[in-house]
């Protein structure tokens, strides 16, 4: 099967509010992310990065312009089309969003349970594999309160990857971490994405991890200011 471009945005615009209170946030966004690419989206606070990421993730309705994600055309997409897109995406947020009363394993299992596609035995074995892949085999029975910030974010990565997503969207996944944990999180994401050929689009302010990107898209005031391809010599 051919590998179509996972994200294509063309003349994408977005506003919050209506009437006099309407405020345009995104202006004429054009870019694409190719299969297997690791792209960072950076820029000042309020420049529209999270808004763009949530549009790509099918978490908001596209208003104007074209946006195609994993072959779903999102302009005028129905809620059920958006839900079906979301199931193909692994989301990782700044706050890990783990449920505090579930163990690491149960948090990951929940993702597969919600997908409802595999047997309960497979749910348990695949979740254990995902936690092993992020180096947490010995922490599976711990609740989030018994894990460090970096370990919690690793659980969030395992949860994002356990459903074999076709795209990973991450919003500031290292912002709450110290420099060493932050780097190990992006190193891990890069390694897992490479092994599985999954593209990553990551919003980050974190200058400590920018060197891991293959391409950096810089936003300013709702527009793409610069999109620079970096040397792939790093791996
Ligand atoms: N739900 C909302 N309603 C109205 N305005 C919003 C809403 N969400 C975001 N905005 C505004 O949209 C603009 C872009 O916000 P966005 O969160 O996309 O920026 P960002 O670049 O991700 O910022 P940061 O780096 O601080 O997270 C900001 O001016 C913000 O105040």
From TrEMBL:
Keywords: ATP-binding, Hydrolase, Lipoprotein, Nucleotide-binding, Transport
InterPro entries the record matches: AAA+_ATPase, ABC_heterocyst_DevA, ABC_transporter-like_ATP-bd, ABC_transporter-like_CS, ABC_transpr_LolD-like, MacB-like_ATP-bd, P-loop_NTPase
GO molecular function: ATP binding; ATP hydrolysis activity; transmembrane transporter activity
Coiled-coil region(s): none
Broad EC category: hydrolase
Membrane spanning residue stretches: none
EC numbers for this chain: 3.6.3.-
Cellular component annotations (GO), alphabetically ordered: membrane protein complex; plasma membrane
PANTHER family: ABC TRANSPORTER, IMPORT ATP-BINDING PROTEIN
Name of the protein this chain belongs to: Lipoprotein-releasing system ATP-binding protein LolD
Lineage: Bacteria, Pseudomonadati, Planctomycetota, Planctomycetia, Planctomycetales
The gene coding this protein: lolD_4
